[in-house]
Design goal:
The protein has about 120 residues and is mainly alpha-helical. The chain contains four helices and no strands. The longest helix is centred in the N-terminal third of the chain and has 37 residues. It holds the Pfam family DUF6249.
Amino acid sequence: MEDVTIMFGWLGFFAAAFFSWYYYLQARTKERTLLIEKGADASNFYAKKPERRGFRFSFPWLKIGLLLVGIAFGLMFGFVFTHAIFPNSLGRIDEPFVFGSTVMFGGLGMILAHFTEEKRDQ
């Protein structure tokens, strides 16, 4: 019974995301059609936007991605190293070492993201 509830929850989430996207596109098309009927220039819709000077906001996908990769490497390194040190301990995890390696590799991922983005901006 619980699996069915979870399945319907995910189904509802993806249905809401799809229909939001669909109605956004439908409204945009209707708006453009009305503007063209009123005599507006259609080339404005597809023209490149002018580049603004000064503060430029872009969502940091690269930084977030490298941070998550660093955290994943840290977790993997911590678990592998812990099981290499304690091979006979089934299920025993040395939490401080795993936490420390996760933070360390996450930080290294952030440093790598900083230098990668700095090089990209030049």
